[in-house]
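Q: Joint fold for the lines below.
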Amino acid sequence: MRINGKPYHTIWLSEKNSSVVQVIDQRKLPFVFEILDLKTPEDCFHAIRDMAVRGAPLIGVTAAYGMYLALLCYKGEDLKNHLHERAEYLKSSRPTAVNLAYAVDVMLDLMPGNLANSYLKEISLAKVEELKTREICFSEKIGEFGLEIIEKIYHQKKKPVNILTHCNAGWLACIDWGTATAPIYKAHLKGIPVHVWVDETRPRNQGARLTAYELGQEGVSHTVIADNTGGHLMQHGMVDLVIVGSDRTTFTGDVANKIGTYLKALAAKDNGVPFYVALPSSTFDWQMEDGIAEIPIEERNPNEVAQIEGWNGNTIQQVRLIPENSPAVNYGFDVTPARLVTGLITERGICKANRESILALFPEIRNTKAQLSKNK
Amino acid sequence: MRINGKPYHTIWLSEKNSSVVQVIDQRKLPFVFEILDLKTPEDCFHAIRDMAVRGAPLIGVTAAYGMYLALLCYKGEDLKNHLHERAEYLKSSRPTAVNLAYAVDVMLDLMPGNLANSYLKEISLAKVEELKTREICFSEKIGEFGLEIIEKIYHQKKKPVNILTHCNAGWLACIDWGTATAPIYKAHLKGIPVHVWVDETRPRNQGARLTAYELGQEGVSHTVIADNTGGHLMQHGMVDLVIVGSDRTTFTGDVANKIGTYLKALAAKDNGVPFYVALPSSTFDWQMEDGIAEIPIEERNPNEVAQIEGWNGNTIQQVRLIPENSPAVNYGFDVTPARLVTGLITERGICKANRESILALFPEIRNTKAQLSKNK
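A: Joint structure:
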């Protein structure tokens, strides 16, 4: 997608120097657009941990590049040990993201440590590019399947389609296209008039900061709203469709996503508004049955609630929002039960949020599950 | 209630000078505690319009004091005209607040303009004090009725009662005690352990700024949360009771309150958490039947969403939260349909949120309505 008219991915290998990885520093958006050079696995670790990059697909690819850089940077003799050690280190940057561990392990499997170094560099770079392409491709497929939903509403309504989204499941969380935003971009590019209600998404304001930014840069009509507003809009027919992303979805259809998603799902249900979740299949948890009981909810630093960051006219500044002696608490996610979800938009197609429908789309998992239960 | 251990009302006549009214400047809380002198009706107008004072009961009393000051300040001959003109002026400070017009008219009715000035001053001051006392008394009654609900939960649970509230329907919005907070203070003073989840209440953050402040000053255990959090807490049994205030309630039980209230009511219903609305009877709209269709929803300045105010360590500062070219929209209220409301806590007692139950508590209205429909 574009920034200032120029197409970008969220991460790429420097054109000038193939031992430098570059990312957009998302901590500074939308106030400052800055590109960050990552030259070592340590740089990648800090970019992930300090959230210069965020979003499961982007984190995974950043860590994969970290393994590539670990190879480039190494000067000693025991390469295998070095790579294993750097792999664990990179995985520890944000231990809850499933894609992170997966991407690191893929890279590690590729690096037996007994191949000629130059060849290893080539194949590991090719692998990173493959992971990256896969993410882009999955996002695009989600976009194409989701587009059908938007098109259908547009053909019925013959007026701009109003879509509400929460947090940033946009291209900035991925490599390109995004998950929840992919159908929106596809519709916009096809000339279907869309308007997006952007939940600001307290406490970290990824909606107000990142989703509004990327939609604006792509020329998509949008309006930022306080998280409290969605219910009122739905009561008054001002929302045709909700699309959100997911951090983890059980194979029974319960959806963990940014805190507050559940409240929007309730309002959608109460007002007959379709509520879709867009997710690559890597987001499915094939073990968990009961999302509310089983999915662990990250409790983050309460200062993210007590303080906020914004632009003071000169620089990015933090201000305190609450009385000095008042405590705050900061749960990062909530779980929307499957009964409130109209459908899941995956790279394989759209399915209902229930066991049968999900496993029908992923027969290889159904077969593995059947085999496992037979062997018990 | 107390601030720094000293009992306060939100508004009072200066002890040193009976021609000066004093208020707590609520624009600066919780960062700075400052008392503002109001010496003229113009001072009262600005205090209301610029929200140094806010909350329907407090606005009403401030305007009544404004009429008293209009009397004191007048030096000319045509007092009656002067008072009528100042009355209209004061009413225009925030035209949507019902209590404001009511309080001004009560004062105007009292001032025929042909009485000796010194006597007028006395009776008008007595009337303001009467209005003030009435508000305090109504809040206390709401507190006593609401206390019964909290006590009942405590006796069943034998553990601290967790109460969630939205916005500030606290003593700072009233003269003392508050509406939604009155039962909480009564419980706390009776030694019943309570803990309050304080919704920050974007965009103006009255929860994070005012409710947290007044609960903290009164020593009530509380935790500030992002508005997105309540649903997750309810799913996990961490909320026993929701109490909110109201800006307007239809006689059929639909409740207009700060934007986002509806989302909490949905979550309460979905999780079997009782959802109560505390309101003095002056908040009832005896004409409207369908709250969602009929109650006008104030659209406020979008800058309240695009920007936020906080403490930068030295002073209160505004920072921008969204991209420069992104639009925002700011609806002030939403309507919670009666079907989601467990009960209404009024100064006359608790009733269900439906026509029969409300009118049974206010038989004089029922009789007037019956008379009117007979005369048609």
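Q: Anything notable?
A: The mean pLDDT of chain A is 95. DSSP finds 13 helices and 18 strands in chain A.
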